[in-house]
Amino acid sequence: MVKNLVDVSDLMDVAITKSRLLKEGILKSEWDKIVGELSKKSFVIFLKNGKLFVGVENSIWIQQMNFQKQSIIKKTNEFLGGNYVSEIIFKIGKKDTKDYFLKETPKNDSIDLDSVTLTAEEYLQIEVELKEIKDDFIKKQTKIVLEKSYKRKKYLKLHGYKQCKCGVYYSSPESMCAICTNKEVLKLEETLMKAFKNRKMLKYSQAVKVIEDLTEKEYNRIKLKKLSKIKKDIDIYLKNRKDDIAFELSKLYFTIDLGELKDEHIEKRAEEFIQLLKK
Questions:
Q1: Whole-angstrom Cα distance, residue 49 to residue 137?
Q2: Could you list the residue range(s) of the whole structural domain that residue 152 is in?
Q3: Residue range 217-228: average pLDDT?
Q4: Are 176 and 164 in contact (CB under 8 A)?
Q5: Interatomic CA distance for residues 38 and 95, integer angstroms
Q6: Residue 59: inside a domain, yes or no?
Q7: Which of 101, 165, 214, 255 is the most exposed place for a label (fewest CB within 10 A)?
Q8: Structural domains of the chain, count
Q9: If 0-12 CB within 10 Å is exposed, 13-18 middle and 19+ buried, where does residue 145 land?
Q10: Are the C-beta atoms of 271 and 247 separated by less than 8 Å?
Q11: What is the pLDDT confidence band of residue 171, given thresholds at 50, 70 and 90?
């Protein structure tokens, strides 16, 4: 009887520990065995530092998969035979996107892997990754996955795709893939939001000295987002008759909005703002 990969996952432990690419390849190739019918609405993007990034068709299905997140993490680790995944991050995306290193789907995949030829050196690299696997069946199945992986990477490189620092291939002119760009934006937002709260970097000219490559457009976008959040908090505190807290938040609002720390001027504007909101 042919052995199932799940049944013999313990034999793969040494090999997959050494290769992120191998773990990714296995998960992409066998995703349907882990999540069942949900595989029709989702796909593995990449695995890095214990975080598994998964593309999902839309927000409705993300919600469904979030309900089962812990179960999916458990099944994924059971499938790989170790605690390799500690978190799953769901991103809205289409399964046929060319920016991701996905499982082959002949009906929808425009990439002709048969047209890609690997070099002797590349085959040698594959053999190095396979050398710890003793079971012939697992070695054969894993070799298929790795060959497809190497061919796809080579195809994308030959057709102008770039490899991001996270490992994902993408075609946009940006310096990194969409996922990493989003992470950088979130990191930038967090930095500026914290600075605004502490009444720092109140002007673009101040912020750009601390944050390299910060554009004035991006600075203003985050500033408006912070002001909007403060305004919502002010409304909530006024509704709950906590005028003192609302007043302090109003002072912060105008400190950020006007980009200055003159207490008398700020307090006057804050008082007028509170009175206006109470009407």
A1: 28
A2: 9-103+114-163
A3: 92
A4: yes
A5: 12
A6: yes
A7: 165
A8: 2
A9: buried
A10: yes
A11: confident
Let me know whether 159 and 183 are in one domain.
Answer: no
The token duo for 164 is 């991001």
SS3 211: coil
Rounded CA-CA distance 264/88 in Å is 49
Q: Which two tokens stand for residue 181?
A: 């760009």
Reported as a pLDDT band with limits 50, 70 and 90, residue 3 is: very low
Whether pTM exceeds 0.85: no
210, amino acid identity:
V
Q: In this predicted model, what pLDDT tens digit does every residue of 37-46 receive, in sequence order?
A: 888 889 888 8
The secondary structure of 78-142 as a DSSP string is: HHHTS---SEEEEEE--TT-TTS-----TTT----GGG----HHHHHHHHHHHTT---HHHHHHH
Burial class (CB in 10 A: 0-12, 13-18, 19+), 39: middle
Q: What is the mean pLDDT of the chain?
A: 81
Residue 45 lies inside a defined structural domain of this protein:
yes
Strand partners, 46: 53
What is the pLDDT confidence band of residue 5, given thresholds at 50, 70 and 90? very low
CA–CA dist 152, 154 (Å, integer):
5
pLDDT band at 226 (very low <50, low <70, confident <90, very high): very high
Q: For residue 111, name the pLDDT band (cuts at 50, 70, 90).
A: low
